[in-house]
Design brief:
The protein is α+β, with helices and mostly antiparallel strands and 174 residues long. The protein is built from three helices and eight strands. The strands form three sheets. A four-stranded antiparallel beta sheet has the order 4-5-1-8, with helices on both faces. A two-stranded antiparallel sheet has the order 2-3. The protein has a two-stranded antiparallel sheet with strand order 6-7. The longest helix has 20 residues. It is globular and about 45 Å long.
């Protein structure tokens, strides 16, 4: 039939001329700069592996608890990173990441220049940490857990922050 796709045919080989992703990132924006960022990270193939919704309430499972610990680890491991509101859903996580001024390190005689990881590296660290812990628990070394990439939005003002916090808090009801 014309216009239908044979679902049994093998996937097309990667061709950089036609298979390319357009970035949703703001051009010329420094994602390691001080600021508030809203992120959404989705599980691989949108699999509902983090818990279940029962009677309008999300019940987190063991895998979801690993994700929660890994998310909190992000704020504990990086001294200039704080976490604000977040919610774990069956197949994704929404959260607010705050990147603060880096603290100066070293001694008075040999100060070191503080370095800040950009948002993408922070989310990458979260994904790596959580995936390793989940795969260790499941005995599935090397298995993809998260989708490639993530959604981000630079929070620009208090109204934006309030709207996003409300969205995160109400997400389980939706």
């Amino acid at each position: 039939m014309v216009g239908t796709k044979n679902i049994l045919s093998p996937p097309m080989a990667y061709d950089p001329q036609i298979h390319h992703r357009r970035s949703i990132r703001l051009k010329e924006y420094d994602y390691s700069s001080v600021g508030w960022y809203f992120v959404t990270v989705c599980t691989h193939e949108w699999r509902c592996t983090l818990g279940n919704v029962l009677e309008d309430q999300f019940i987190i499972n063991a895998t979801g608890k690993i994700v929660e610990r890994s998310w909190k680890w992000l704020g504990e491991h990086f001294p200039n990173v704080e976490l604000d509101e977040f919610v774990i859903m069956p197949n994704h996580l929404h959260g607010i990441v705050i990147i603060n001024e880096p603290r100066r390190g070293g001694s008075r005689t040999a100060p070191t220049e503080p370095k800040t990881k950009p948002l993408g590296r922070l989310i990458g660290a979260f994904k790596t940490t959580s995936t390793k812990a989940i795969n260790l628990r499941n005995g599935s070394s090397g298995t993809a857990f998260w989708q490639r990439g993530y959604y981000e939005h630079v929070i620009r003002n208090d109204n934006d922050l309030h709207r996003i916090r409300t969205y995160i808090q109400n997400n389980p009801l939706q």
